[in-house]
Design a protein that fits this description.
Blueprint lengths: L16 H4 L1 H12 L4 E4 L1 H7 L8 E4 L3 H10 L3 E6 L4 E6 L2 E7 L1 E7 L2 E6 L3 H6 L9 E2 L5 E2 L4 H6 L9 H7 L2 H13 L6 H9 L9 H13 L3 H10 L2 H6 L5 H14 L5 H9 L3 H10 L4 H5 L16 H11 L1 H14 L3 H16 L9 H5 L7 H16 L6 H15 L1
Parallel strand pairs: 2-5
Antiparallel strand pairs: 1-2, 1-8, 3-4, 4-5, 6-7, 8-9
Length: about 425
């Protein structure tokens, strides 16, 4: 489920711990001392109003970048011109960085890029943002400014574009994916019809986005509590095939999301991507290339095919052998997918038991190494690895019962035979 929204959204964040921290006060005070207005903006305010954790704090100000840097340095703070062409300066207070951005309005847009003009008009700054719930401001006293109706939308769990939705999307097509991600994260109601229609009309713009931007946004979407609901809408309107180049398995994803909620598990976006679109090895390779996944991310994609189900029918020794072969982390993830693929509560319970084996059985470490073979007088070469693999296979087949002494004796016997 999306985050619980208070029955009445507060109109003040006075006394909020993140607002009272010394580093936050230092930046706001530095700008105020120089005669500039400054307010916290965007996700910080939205999450605080929802009672969610606040991490990075972004600040909007009437000060120009040069004025921001001068005000910060006059107060003894570090100021770094990280994006002055777009009005952004990073101010560091007590070793904590804050992005401080001058109020802006778009003069001309070029896809995701825009030529901006600095302004002192808070409403103009709000109008250039994407969604109303991201156009909320909070001053140093905790007073909320809501120029575009974001508070009402937050209370209604509604994700709504600011102004003309198609125009917002043409400015940056990534807003299509952000629209669905925010819906999955914050909304429990039906998706905003006007926003959905605009996304559908401008769907062709997705092809112009870089794989890296799509990947980042998609994985964030898949982490959200309403991921299955949002993905189902996206599939119905053709977005998922456009993004993944694969037909999605909506039902399997929905079951996995539901089980994650039941078990209070931290969502695994790559596992959710696996159940959504990875049925064979070719799918994994395809997604790794299409989304520019890192090597580690590609490795964490599981091939979700019927052979996975064979693990549930193994006897106790067979399960231990399989767990030894795949490793505990992959074993847990396979069991999670198995439960999502199950047909009955009993099968789900069986998969949960299977996954718990990674916690209850300490995987033994094979006691022998190459030095044990060399100590027997064999010359270095491929035979050493072959001998170790042979002994290890027998150790595994014997349910890991043989101890180091027994294995060394067996190794010595095989070494003598090889001379």
């Amino acid at each position: 489920m999306p985050p619980a929204v208070p029955a009445t959204i507060p109109t003040s964040l006075a006394g909020a711990p993140w607002l009272e921290r010394p580093e936050t006060r230092a930046v706001l005070s530095a700008l105020a001392a120089a005669g500039h207005e400054a307010r916290i903006v965007g996700g910080t305010v939205r999450n605080a109003l929802l009672g969610e954790p606040v991490t990075d704090i972004d600040i909007a100000t009437t000060a120009t970048p040069d004025e921001t840097m001068a005000a910060a340095r006059a107060a003894g703070l570090d100021a770094i011109p990280t994006g002055v062409s777009h009005g952004t300066v990073t101010v560091v207070a007590h070793h904590v960085p804050f992005e401080v951005t001058t109020l802006r309005e778009d003069v001309e847009t070029f896809g995701r890029h825009a030529r901006v003009a600095f302004t002192a008009d808070w409403a103009a700054d709000a109008r250039r943002r994407d969604f109303t719930i991201n156009a909320l401001y909070c001053d140093a006293n905790g007073t909320i400014s809501d120029p575009l109706g974001g508070l009402a939308d937050l209370a209604a769990r509604r994700v709504r574009f600011i102004g003309d939705a198609r125009e917002r999307i043409r400015e940056d097509a990534l807003r299509i994916l952000r629209f669905f991600r925010f819906h999955a994260r914050y909304s429990a109601e039906a998706i905003d019809a006007e926003g959905l229609a605009a996304c559908a009309a401008e769907r062709h713009l997705l092809a112009k986005l870089s794989a890296e931007r799509v990947r980042a946004e998609l994985l964030k979407l898949l982490e959200a509590p309403g991921a299955a609901r949002a993905i189902a809408v996206m599939a119905a309107y053709g977005f998922i095939v456009e993004i993944l180049g694969r037909a999605p398995r909506i039902g399997l994803l929905a079951r996995l999301v539901a089980l994650d909620a039941d078990h209070r598990r931290v969502p695994d976006p790559l596992l959710r991507l696996s159940v959504l679109a990875v049925a064979v090895e070719e799918d994994r390779d395809h997604l790794a290339q299409r989304l520019r996944l890192s090597r580690e991310e590609a490795r964490d994609l599981l091939v979700i095919d019927p052979r996975l189900m064979a693990h549930i029918d193994l006897d106790a020794a067979g399960r231990r052998r399989a767990l030894y072969a795949v490793g505990p982390e992959r074993w847990r993830r396979m069991a999670i997918v198995g439960a999502a693929s199950a047909e009955t509560p009993d099968e789900i319970a069986a998969w949960d038991t299977l996954g718990a084996l990674a916690e209850t059985w300490e995987i033994p470490k094979f006691p022998l190494a190459g030095r044990d073979v060399l100590a027997l007088g064999l010359a270095p070469g491929p035979r050493i690895g072959a001998l170790l693999a042979e002994i290890e296979a027998e150790w595994i087949a014997g349910d890991f019962a043989a101890d180091a002494a027994a294995l060394k004796a067996r190794l010595a016997s095989r070494a003598r035979e090889s001379h």
